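To: structure subgroup
Subject: Chain for Friday's discussion

All,

I'm putting the inputs and outputs inline so they're searchable in the archive.
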Amino acid sequence: MNIDIIQKKSGIVGRSDAIAKVLEMVAQVSPVDISVLISGESGTGKEIFAKAIHQNSKRSHESIVTVNCGAIPEGIIESELFGHKKGAYTDAKGDRKGYFESANKGPIFLDEIGETPLETQVKLLRVIESGEFMPVGESKIKKTDVRIIAATNKDLSELVEKGKFRQDLYYRLNTVSIKLPSLNERVEDIALLVERFALEFTRSNDMIYRGFVPDAIRNMKNHQWKGNIRELKNLVPLRDGESDLFKAMKLIAETGKGPENQIPSMGCGIKWKNN
C-alpha cells in the first residue's frame, strides 16, 4: 500500500524519516485484522493514526467507535463499554447498548487504555479473546466482532511491573506496536505542519495567508514542544495577518518570557487580547 495514498486519505502531514517509518507500519498492519497498540506522548496524533489504520482496513465500510477510557468515571465505565439492562442501577431507565456492541463488525479505538481500572481490564481481556461480554445487570452473554485499536501515552510494560495493568491484556493488545515520534523527533515536519494549520485557520476565518518568515520557523524548530503537535497547532493562528507568533517566539527565545499581553488558556499556547 502506497504511503502517499494513506497520507492523502488521512490528512497526516510529514515527510521526515520518523513519520515515514510510522506510515510504513500503518500500510503493513491496516489490511491485517489484528489488534494494534499505538503509543506516544500526548499530542502526537494517536487518534488520526488509528483512523488511518481503519480507513485502509477490511472494515473501512463500518464506522470507527472511539472511546476515551481516561474520560469515563470508574463507576460507569463497564456500563459504557458493555451496556446495561434497565434497572441495573439507579439511573438505568432503560436498556442501553455499550460501545462494544455498537462497534460490532467494525473497529473500536480505545484511547488512553492505560487508565482503565484493573477490574474492567479482566472483562476487556475476555471480549478481546472470545468476543464475549455481558452487559451490566444482564445474565446472558452477548457476542461482538470488533477490531481493537488501542492507544496510550504511558509505558504499559512499566504499569505491568507495578501491578497497575494486566500482563495478559498487555500481550493481547500489543500484537503490533506502533510508537509515534514526538514533535521534537520530527522537527523537519514543522514547516509543513505550520503551513497546514495556518491555511486551515485563515480559510475558516476569511483571512489571507501570507506565510511565516524563516526566523519564525527556525525558532519553532528550536523550541521544546512538550505538548507536541497539539501545542504547535494552538500557536499558529495569527491576528489579521500580523506576525504575532514570530514576535512572541523571538521574545521567548531572547528573554525566556512570553508577551505581557499573553492570556494563559487551557490547551492553548498563545491567545491575544483584542485591542
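Points worth raising on Friday:
The beta strands are 36-39, 65-68, 107-111, 132-133, 142-143, 147-152, 176-179.
Residues 238-243, 262-275 have pLDDT under 50 and may be disordered.

D.
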